Amino acid sequence: MTIDRLLEGLKAWDPRAIGRAISLVENGDESAQELLSALDEDLIARATILGITGPPGAGKSTLTNGIISQLRGSHKRIGIIAIDPSSPISGGAILGDRIRMMQHATDKDVVMRSMATRGRLGGLCATAGAAVRIMASCGCSPIIIETVGVGQSEMDIIRLADITLLVLAPGLGDDIQAMKAGLLEVADILVVNKADCKGADILAMDLEAVTRKGSGTPTQVSMTVATESKGIAELLERIDKVDKEHRDSGERQKRRRGAHDQEVLDWCLEMLRPKLLAEITRRNLPLPGDPRLKAKKILEEQ
Amino acid sequence: MAKHPKLAEWEENELAKSLSRFPERKEKFTNHGGEEIPRLATPEDIDSDYLDKLAFPGQYPFTRGVQPTMYRGRLWTMRQYAGFSTAAESNKRYRYLLEQGTTGLSVAFDLPTQIGYDSDDPMSVGEVGKVGVAIDSLADMETLFDRIPLDKVSTSMTINSPAAILLAMYVAVGEKQGVAPKDIKGTIQNDVLKEYVARGTYIFPPKPSLRLITNIFQWCSQMTPAFNTISISGYHIREAGSTAVQEVAFTLANGCTYVQTALDAGLELDVFARRLAFFFNASSDLLEEVAKFRAARRLWARLMKERFNARNPASLMLRFHTQTAGNTLTAQQIDNNIVRVTIQALAAVLGSTQSLHTNSKDEAHSLPTEDSVRTALRTQQILAHESGVAETIDPLAGSYYIEALTDKIEREALALIDKIEESGGVVKCIEEGFIQRQIENAAYQYQQEIERGERIIVGVNKFQIQEEKKPPLLRVDPEVEKTQVAKLTETKKNRDNGQVARSLASLESAAQGSENLMPCIYDCVKEYATLGEICNVLRKVFGEYKDRG
Amino acid sequence: MTDKTKKNRVLVGKPGLDGHDRGAKFIAHALRDAGFEVVYTGIRRSPEEIAAAAIQEDVDAVGLSSLSGAHMRLFPAVVEALAKAGAPEIPVLGGGVIPDEDIVALKAAGIVEIFTPGTPVDKIINAFKDACEKKSGG
Q: Domains in chain A, start-ordered, CATH in brackets?
C-alpha cells in the first residue's frame, strides 16, 4: 500500500490500513515518517490513553475484555495495544493476550495490536507511542495499553498513558512492599481483581494503607471480578472521574507534555544508537581506559 | 535407598570390564520427564512390606488389583470406542462389534454434540458426524440403540459438558425398551475438569459444571445405582503431552475435587464413591505404565482413606478403563502401529485394567475402517486367550524394578497433588494456568527430543521408507450433515412444541435455583427437546467458559 | 530512521470445534524459538475471527490446526475470509490429521502447505519462513 492509500485507509477506519501502518513503524521503515507526519493531531490530542499494568495472573486481559464489552455498549471506538516480552535468546515472542479478547475480533470498532518488546528499551516506548497516535487519529478513544509491570520498558510505556490502572489479585504471592513500589506511585487507580477470592479485602486494605503513607489521602481501590463482569461499570465511572479531574487541574496537559518530551528523547536515542554504535565499532578503541571518557570524546566530535 | 552389599563389587568388576569393551548406547537413559532410568534394580530398591504396600488382590491398598480373582474370574471388558456420522450407521457398527465379540459398547459423539450444539447450528458446519455420532434429540438415541438390549449391554459414553442430557436420553431409551433405570449399566465420562486443561469440549464455567456433576451423582445413586457416574480421565492429559507422574497426579487431584464438591453438596461419600471410575492412557513405555497403574490404585486408596475417611472398601477401589495411546500412532508405515498397540495393551493388562480399548492402525490418518478395528479387537483377544498373562494375577509384582518404580511414581504424584492443594486447589490452578503450563512444558520437551533425534520414533525419525502404499481410509460422507439436519427438522415438526417450551422454561427456573436439574432435564428430553435447546437454556443461566490461553 | 528490526509475524489458531491444541501450541513455541512473533489465538475460532485478527495484527502468515476431520470445510473458509476482508495475500498453512487425498484439494483451494503427523518441525519452520518471505517480497 502506498502512503496515500494508507492514510485514506486510516480515515476510513480500515483495519488493514491500521495494521500495515503500525507494521511500518515497528519495522523501522523509512516511509513511516511520512505517515506519522500526516496523522490527525486534533483527534490525538483529544483521545484518552489508558494504561493497564500489573503482575502476571492478575487478570489484566480479562479485565480489558470486560472494559471493552462495557464501552462498546456506549458505541465507542476502542484501540488496544498488548505488549509481551520477546525471548532474549531467539528474539521471537508468543503474543497471547489476544486470546481473551477474541469475542471482539470481528467488531469493526475494536482494533487490537499485539506487540513484542523486541529487546528494545526506549525504542519500544517510541514504537508504542506511534501505534497509539495511529489508533487515536482513526477516532479511537480510549486506547488501552496493556503490559506486564515487571521491566523498566513497561514502566516507560505507562508514561505514555493519561491514566494508569494497576491491577492486582490476591494470592499471587507478591509482597506489596517488595513489589513494584514504583508502580504504586505511578498508578492513578488501583484495582483488586478476583475480588471474590480469599484475601481480596485484606489486599485492598494493605494497598490503601501503603498509598496513604505517601500523600495523606489513600488511592481508592476498585474491586472487580473480571470473569463475571462485576465492578467494571463502577471502575469506568472512576476512570471518567479521574479523567475529568486531570483535565480540570491541568494534570493531563502536564503529563502529555512529559510524555511528549520523553517520546522525542526516545526517538533521539533510537536514531542515534545505530550511528553511535557504528562509530564506536569503526574506531576499534583500545580496551584499557575509562569508557565514560571515551564516550564524551565521541560525542564532542559528533 | 540402601545399596546391595555386592553391587559396588559387581560395578567394579564385571560391569567395568564390559564398559571398557564397549560403552552403553547412551550417556544417560531418561524417561519422558527427563528422569534417569537406573541400570537395574535390586532387592534393596524396594521397601518391602507385602501387606502394607501390596497386599492381596481385592484388599487395601489394592496395588495388585481390585478384584480377588481378576482375569481368572472375568476377563477385562473389551470395549472399542466407536461412532461416526449418523445414528443409523453407528448402530450398524455397534451390532457388528457385538457379533465379533466386544462385551461393551463405547459411544463416540461428534464435536457439536459434545459441545452442546445442534447439527443445524452455524458452529456445527463441517463438523457434523465427523469424530463421532451426531445426537440432536432422543430420536437419534433411539436409532443408535435400535435392536440393542440395554439390559444386556453396558455402554460407556464419552460425553462431558452435556453428559446429564445424554444420560437422560439413554435412560429414556431403556424405559421405552422396558428396561428399568435400576438395571441400566454403563458409564458417562462426565469429567469436566480435564476439559479445561486437555481436551477443550467445555461449555459452562467450572462452578456450574461441578453443580451439574453432583446433580448427576445424586440422581444416579437413587435412579441408576448400577451406572458409573463419572470416568475421571487421565487419558487426555497424557495425550496432551504430560508425563506418567502428571497423568496420575492431575487425574487423582481432579478426583479429589469431585469428591469434595459432592461432599460439600451434602452427598454421602460411601454412597457415591463406589460409582466413581477412572480412565487412563496406556503408552509405550511398558514398564513405566505397569508401575503407573499400580501406583495410581494404591495412591487413590490411600487418599480416599486418609483424606476422606471412606469406610466402605468399594469407595477405596480405583476401577479404570484404559485406552492405548493415540499420540503414539504414526502416519508412516502404519502396520507398525499394530505392534505399538500390542505393547500398550499388554501394559494395561499387566496393570490390571477393568476394561480396554485398543486403537486401530490407521487412526493417524482418519477414523478406522472395519478391518482395522477388527485387528485391534483381535489384539485384545490374543492377549486374553493365547499369551497366558491373564492366567495369573499381577505377575510383575515383586520385580525389583517394577516395585521401585511403583513407589517412585506414587511418591512423585502425591507431591504434585499436595502442591496443587497448597496452591488453592484444582479449579484455582486451572484458572491460573498452572496445570496447563505443566502439561505444555512436558509436551514441548518431549517433542523437542524427537526433533533432535534423541528420542526415536520408528518410521518417523529413523528407519523411514519411501511410503508407497496408500491405506484405504474411512471417509465420512459430507451428505451426513444434510441428512442429520433433515432428521432434526422432522423431529421438531413432529413433537409437541408447547410441551417442549414448558419443560425448557421449568429447566431455566430450576437452573437459577439450586435444585437437582436431572428431573427437569429428563422431562425436556422425553418431549424431544433438542440438545442445543437444552444447552442454550443452561448457557443463558450459567454463562460460557472462556479459555485464558 | 532506526535499525530495521523486521520480524516475521504469524498467527496460529484452531478453527472449528476441535479442542486438541497440543500440536498448535508446540508449533507456536517452535516458531517463537526460531525468532517469529506468534499471535496465538487458541481454540474454537470461526474463520472470520481468525481473518479479522490476522489483518489487525498484520501477520505475514496464518497457521491452522485441525484434528477433527473438518479441515476441508474450515481451512478454505479461512482463505475465503481473508480474501473477503481485503487480505488475500496472507498465506495460509495448515496441519493435523489430514489424509493425503485431501491435500491436493486444499492446495487447490489456496492453502500453501499442509503438514501431516510426523513432519519434522524444521520443515514446518522453513515453510513458514518461505511463506513470510514471499509475502513481503510480493
A: 1-38 (no CATH), 45-249 (3.40.50.300), 261-300 (no CATH)
